[in-house]
Amino acid sequence: MRINGQDFQTIWLDADGRRVHVIDQTRLPHRFETSTLATMDDAAKAIRDMIVRGAPLIGVTGAYGLALAAAADPADAAIAAACETLLATRPTAVNLRWALDRVQALLLSAAPAERAALAYAEAGRIADEDVACCAAIGDHGAALIRAAAERRRGEPVNILTHCNAGWLATVDWGTALAPIYKAARAGAPLHVWVDETRPRNQGASLTAFELLSEGVPHTVIADNAGGHLMQHGLVDLVIVGTDRTTRSGDVCNKIGTYLKALAAHDNGVPFYVALPSSTIDWRIADGVAEIPIEERGPREVTHISGRTAEGAVAEVQVTPEGSPARNWAFDVTPGRYVTGLITERGVCAATESGLSELFPDLAG
Question: Could you say which of 223, 243, 250, 281 is catalytic?
Answer without folding.
Answer: 243
